[in-house]
Design brief:
Elements lengths: L2 E4 L12 E3 L6 E4 L25 H5 L6 E3 L1 H7 L11 E3 L28 H11 L14 H27 L4 H21 L17 H25 L2 H9 L1 H12 L6 H19 L6 H25 L8 H23 L10 H25 L4 H23 L5 H31 L13
């Protein structure tokens, strides 16, 4: 009959030398104070079990009991690859809650708590999959989800509506860039306040007892960038054609690389640098043969690109921060408030909009509608940026620029020369190649080892 020697805890001294019969398997076992064994490296401290197998009859008789079956491959794994003389399965009878030390035929078969240790290859795969770090939602590329596609379509639609109304107000209704920019920021602030503090179906604001560290300076800095981006973009739109303005904005990757090198000392790879050549060449060709070219409009559009890159870096940092992540409505509301504080006084002081009386009713309605479209464009852009990767966002932004260029030509009927059109196509293709090269470089860096993340590639709006 198989004798099981078990090193128990608690009252083992009182039970020493006594022979007990296991009620489940019928096997006899004796309790003794055995301190001669050495702990196995796999053994968990505080829990020991030893097994003695005799002729195997008790093991066979307990096959219908609650037991754990160990195959010969399991025995070889625990014993360091050594085969046992007997190939019949061993059974471990039901043990007390404290995990015991196993001793098999004097060969010191010791392991930690077999009930919790994985005994199959599938168990190890399951354990490894559970321990594998998962990507956060901001790191995943979920463009094909329904919500991301809805944000993308709405972003395109509101962008075209905003661009069309901007040009219509500045060129047809005689509006000023300061007036239009102030209205956009003011409407965005009011709509953002409603979404933040009035319950609605679109967004429910989570109340915060305290703001994160550096909250005020972050919002002021991003508000200044939004103020400059809106004002400079409207100045360029007033002096040059819509298609030319969007072509210049499409060359943003060129300024992204320059800013990354000047501020972050980030070096780009060979393919990324080569992809910038068609961007620069196409922009130069478009500028030379653009009929609506003016120095003021061109300079304002270039300055808009520079500020756009800075705003994009900062926005992505706040949207995917480790300590505190701002939601799109938060970022939209607080930065718009900061921009209004800067933009409205400058507009009233420089333009003096009421010197000729109150503005026309049609102009007021167009300004309000434009502000609503601008707010919806911005909020959908921020929401989309929080759900897809920077590379995917930049590709979507490049396609949006190309679509807006050709739609503006069809709607506004602005004349475009053949070489100017060729230059526009070259710029768009160059930006697409830049995005592919950037993605290839990031994948290669991820395979070589973790490194610093590159800055985002496109403007959030």
């Amino acid at each position: 009959m198989a004798t099981h020697q078990l090193n128990g805890v608690g009252d083992k001294t009182a039970l020493q030398g006594q022979t007990q019969v296991d009620q489940v398997s019928g096997a006899e076992y004796s309790i003794e104070n055995d301190t001669r064994h050495r702990p196995h490296p796999l053994e968990k401290q505080g829990s020991r079990t030893r097994f003695h197998s005799g002729n195997g009859s008790a093991a066979k008789s307990s096959s219908s009991s609650l037991a754990l079956s160990l195959s010969s491959s399991d025995i070889r794994q625990v014993n360091g690859g050594k085969d046992d003389a007997t190939s019949s399965p061993r059974h471990v009878s039901h043990t007390p809650p404290t995990s015991p030390t196993l001793n098999h035929s004097g060969s010191n078969l010791k392991t930690a708590n077999f009930a919790s240790a994985p005994s199959r290859a599938g168990d190890f795969k399951t354990l490894r999959s559970r321990l594998r770090p998962r990507k956060s939602r901001s790191q995943q590329d979920n463009l094909l989800t329904f919500r991301a596609m809805a944000y993308l379509v709405l972003w395109y639609f509101f962008s075209f509506c905003t661009l069309f109304l901007n040009k219509y107000i500045l060129s047809m209704l005689g509006g000023e860039p300061g007036m239009l920019g102030s209205t956009q920021m003011l409407v965005t602030t009011v709509c953002g306040f409603c979404k933040m503090y009035i319950p609605c179906c679109l967004y429910r604001h989570k109340s915060q007892d305290e703001r994160p560290k550096g909250f005020l300076w972050n919002m002021i800095g991003l508000g200044i960038m939004r103020f400059l981006t809106v004002l400079l973009g409207l100045v360029s739109l007033k002096h040059i054609a819509v298609s030319f303005t969007e072509t210049i904005k499409s060359s943003a990757p060129l300024f992204t690389v320059i800013i990354a090198w000047l501020m972050l000392r980030e070096r780009t790879g060979l393919w990324v640098n080569l992809s910038l050549l068609p961007v620069m060449g196409g922009l130069a060709l478009t500028s030379c043969y653009e009929l609506s070219f003016t120095a003021i409009g061109f300079s304002a559009a270039i300055a808009t690109n520079l500020v756009d890159c800075l705003q994009n870096v900062f926005s992505k940092k706040l949207l995917s921060g480790s300590s505190h992540r701002y939601s799109p409505p938060e970022l939209q509301f607080y930065t718009s408030t900061a921009a209004v504080v800067l933009l409205v006084p400058s507009w009233l002081f420089l333009d003096n909009p009421f010197k000729n009386g109150l503005p026309d009713q049609v102009l007021v309605m167009a300004l309000v509608l434009d502000g609503v479209f601008f707010h919806l464009q911005s909020i959908t852009a921020y929401a989309l940026m929080g759900r897809i990767s920077p590379v995917t966002h930049s590709v979507a932004n490049t396609f949006k620029r190309a679509l807006l260029i050709w739609l503006s030509i069809l709607v506004f009927h602005n004349p475009v020369t053949v070489l100017s059109g060729v230059g526009t196509i070259i710029v768009v293709l160059g930006v697409f190649l830049y995005n592919r090269a950037r993605e290839y470089e990031q994948n290669r860096q991820a395979q070589d080892g973790p490194g610093e993340g590159s800055i985002p590639l496109s403007s959030p709006v």
